Amino acid sequence: MTLFDAPAPVAPATENPPVIPGQPLAVCRMVVAYDGTDFHGFAKQVDQRTVAGVLKDALTLVLRTDVELACAGRTDAGVHAWGQVVSFAVARDVDLDRLRASLNGMLGPEIVVRHASLARPDFDARHSARWRSYQYTIVNRTVADPFRARYAWHLPAPLDLRALRLGADPFVGEHDFASFSRKGPEGSTQVRKVTRSAWADLGDGILRYDIRANAFCWQMVRSIVGTLVEVGVGKKRPGDILSIMRAGDRAAAGQVAPPHGLSLWEVGYDDDGNASA
Question: Which sequence positions are flagged as catalytic?
């Protein structure tokens, strides 16, 4: 079974009751995985195929009512997810097993609902989240891997793993990540608290960068990875990272890593520590 495998298709669950005005409502929480290759990001956009747009259309068809989605992280075009979390209002007597099976039959394996449950009334996938974690995968060998081409950045030049790890350490803590993200709306802050920043050698030339923070800025992880790759090939030194961060200038950092190596991996909440299936 691959990362984005799904159950065999089933027919839409037309037996699910629609959300009727005045009917008692609950909040549904779903853990969703998707291959972001052919989507223009998560957030719904006019005239663009997005994860939220496709998922919302399927939910509207199955539940026979309009659905408003909240999500834990608005992934960019080409970025994947294993542990994206969404929430929306449903009727209290909705059959979640049938809803999950119907969505997977309609959308899988490109989009898969890994888990569905009723959450507390005030739960919101975005605002209730305490942390998010991302993984970035690199294939670091001379020959590309066709089975990882959609989900990993192929880099034939040898990377110095020790330098990568030394460069990753300074990101832990609360910092202003203006040097590692695109500028946000006027008045927004780019201060984030990172609790994990580490590289793992998975063998056979597969390297994985793991980062966990309370929240992330736009293109923050990809900017960090692109800069660390420059450290790994010797264009920058591990000791340069702190000065780049203090510069508060995107031009001081390195390239932005391509989106297809990045996955939103997990989201943590107070009630159960995580939102994984």
Answer: 76
Cβ neighbour number for residue 114 with a 10 Å cutoff:
17
Distances from the Cα of 225 to the Cα of 59, 63, 222, 255, angstroms: 35, 40, 5, 8
Find the distance separating the first CA and the last CA of the chain, reported in whole Å: 16
CB 67 within 8 A of CB 59: yes
Q: Which two tokens stand for residue 10?
A: 């089933």
Residue 24 banded pLDDT, cuts 50, 70, 90: low
Fold classification of 130-266 is Alpha-Beta Plaits (3.30.70)
Give the C-alpha distances (Å, rounded to integers) separating 191 from 58, 173, 180, 187, 216.
Answer: 36, 10, 11, 12, 9
Q: Which CATH architecture has domain 25-127?
A: 2-Layer Sandwich (3.30)
User: Taking residues 236-252, what's their average pLDDT?
Assistant: 95
pTM of the model as a whole: 0.88
DSSP assigned state of 161: H
